[in-house]
Design brief:
Structural class: mainly alpha
Largest sheet: none
Number of helices: 5
Radius of gyration: 17 Å
Oligomer: single chain
Shape: elongated
Strand content: under 5%
Helix content: over 70%
C-alpha cells in the first residue's frame, strides 16, 4: 500500500516514481533470494512466487497514476492568471 500512497504525498517525476516503486516491489523477492543463499529451504513453486509478489509490481505500476494527476494539476495552476 505504501508503494501507491507515497507518490501522492511526495510527488516526483513519473520515471523516478516508477523506478522507486519497482525497487520497493523487488524487496520481497530479494529477501527470499538472500534467505535461500543463506541455506533456508523454500518449498514453493514458481507460480506461488509469482502469486505472492505480483501485487507489489502492480502497485508500482499504479503508483504512476497519482503522479500524472498531480503534475497535470500543477501545470493547470501555473497557467492560471
Amino acid at each position: 500500500m505504501g508503494i501507491v500512497v507515497y507518490p501522492s504525498i511526495v510527488p516526483n517525476t513519473v520515471r523516478k516514481t516508477l523506478f522507486t516503486g519497482l525497487l520497493a516491489a523487488s524487496m520481497g523477492p530479494l529477501a527470499l533470494w538472500i534467505s535461500t543463499l543463506r541455506g533456508q529451504e523454500v518449498n514453493a513453486t514458481l507460480f506461488n512466487y509469482l502469486w505472492a509478489f505480483l501485487p507489489n509490481y502492480i502497485a508500482a505500476a499504479i503508483a504512476v497514476v497519482p503522479v500524472k494527476v498531480i503534475r497535470r494539476l500543477g501545470q493547470q495552476v501555473n497557467q492560471c492568471p
